[in-house]
Amino acid sequence: MTLATIDLVILAIYAVCIFGLAQWVSRDKDGARKTSTDYFLASKNLPWWAIGASLIAANISAEQIIGMSGSGYVIGLGIASYEWMAALTLLIVGKYFLPIFLRNEIVTMPQFLQQRYGPSIRNVMAVFWLLLYVFVNVTSILWLGSLAVNGVTGLDQTYAIVAIGVFALAYQLWGGLKAVALTDIVQVMLLVAGGLIIGYIALGQIGGDAGALGGFQTLLTRFPEKFDMILSPDNPQFVNLPGIAVLLGGLWIMNISYWGFNQYIIQRALAARSIGEAQKGIAFAAYLKLLMPVIVVLPGMAALVLAPNLGQPGQPATDQAYASMMNLLPAGLKGLVFAALIAAIVASLASKVNSISTIFTLDLYAKANKAASDRQLVLVGRIAAVAAMVIGILTARPLLGNFEQGFQYIQEFTGFFTPGIVVIFILGLFWSRASEAGALTGAILSVALSAVFWLLQFLDIFAFPFMNRVGVVFLLSLAAAVIVSLMSPPKAGTMQIRLDGVSYRTSAGFNIAGVGVILFLIAVYAIWW
């Protein structure tokens, strides 16, 4: 694939505009300096539309767009469960988790753990999250993003990694979270527009005179098995989407951990000007998640007709489906859709680097240097952001370059920790008897059990779908954490989370939005069960 001159012009306009907008929205008032609250929490004044858009921009990146398009090609519509069930998870987070976080003025997830359990678990989890974000999340976005850029433009991957990293760092370095969140509405609009354009044109080519609707009907007729939302055990993709477990099992654990307790996601809601504004932003994000399969799954399904021979040796379908559909676009539109892809990569990368900066500065540096001024904290935050990006650029190829499907390995790695994280937070939020000893037991057992199940599967001793493994490990870790907490109750004074004044009542608008999400899910699963 090549880009015409008009495509390159559109891409350049996008880069200049998004960089300029980021600097403008994060400019200081006359005579004022950025405080740590300004830099890390956008002055705690984010409006609902910025929260909702930024949640999605932080979430959707190259691995989602390219990976889920490839999964749409291989698995079909069933992969959309990751997106559609996330919409319901977001509403649960907004109704039951955020009121506690905002009541206690939580800034970072490790801070919550200290106030709930004690300082030891805060330090352990802060270091863990930093390592995970730098060596897994940042490197994966850089590597997979560079694959996308290389596939579209032919630019050498090393140069692509550096270009993506430098641009993502540059546009958010001065303004912090405000620069990221307030530009994300533009990034998401571009992402949605690009996805709808590519889906519409692809379906239109399939449908011919019958148009996009005719193209969709053709897919339904020719590939009915690709519209199964709940896969049967005899389906070769059952190991990736193990039937009813999609609705009742490990996917819930993965979604709750990601949307409820993940710093670079929840940080947007923590920066809201009020609980009501945060919940409106959450509801907005939930409806954007309902739309995401049209943007990231449908192009891959269209490739079943328009590019039926994908997946040649050495280049899996995951890497080809979305790019093959982009190749259908005329000059100009191709540049717009490519800009949307770059927007998704850059926005997600900038979000993760900003959260690395926040955790390092507020959970480690500020605790070790209690006399540090706001000016020092902001400076340290910027240095941490630069360091994280440099490390990511230098280690992306060594860590992921040898893996043909690196994202699958990343999923396996994070899945070792996901059950334990959910155990720690759920007990911390809703069970006063939970102790630090119980929480650490749940976290450690989560890693140990996941490793055992993974090894059994790797040695072909016992086949266990990844999603089922997450669910079983969660239940076992939860039981262990409860037992240890009962045997070793929390020490006096360690519980510093305040629950007085916390209300789980939500506005009529939020409730109506929630009903709408539930009705939508009932409809799509009933139609394509």
Q: Which residue ranges are poorly predicted, with pLDDT under 50 across at least 5 consecutive positions?
A: none
Biggest β-sheet: count, sense, barrel?
none
What is the CA-atom radius of gyration, in angstroms? Answer: 23 Å
Count of individual beta strands: 0
Question: Would you tell me the structural class of the helices and strands?
Answer: mainly alpha
Distance between the termini: 37 Å
Helical segment tally?
Answer: 23
Helix-strand pattern: HHHHHHHHHHHHHHHHHHHHHHH
Helical fraction: over 70%
Mean pLDDT: 83
What is the overall silhouette? globular
Q: Proportion of β residues?
A: under 5%
Please give a structural write-up.
There is one protein chain. The protein is mainly alpha-helical and 529 residues long. It contains 23 helices and no strands. The radius of gyration is 23 Å and the shape is globular. It starts with a helix and ends with a helix. The relative contact order is 0.18.
Secondary-structure map:
Blueprint: H1 5-25, H2 36-41, H3 48-59, H4 62-74, H5 81-103, H6 109-116, H7 119-153, H8 157-173, H9 177-207, H10 211-222, H11 245-248, H12 250-260, H13 263-270, H14 275-296, H15 298-306, H16 317-326, H17 333-368, H18 374-400, H19 406-415, H20 418-430, H21 436-458, H22 466-487, H23 508-527
Helix pairs in contact: 1-8, 1-9, 1-17, 3-9, 3-13, 3-14, 3-17, 4-15, 4-16, 5-12, 5-14, 5-23, 6-7, 7-8, 7-17, 7-18, 7-19, 8-17, 8-18, 9-10, 9-14, 9-15, 9-17, 12-20, 12-22, 13-17, 14-23, 15-16, 17-18, 20-21, 20-22, 21-22
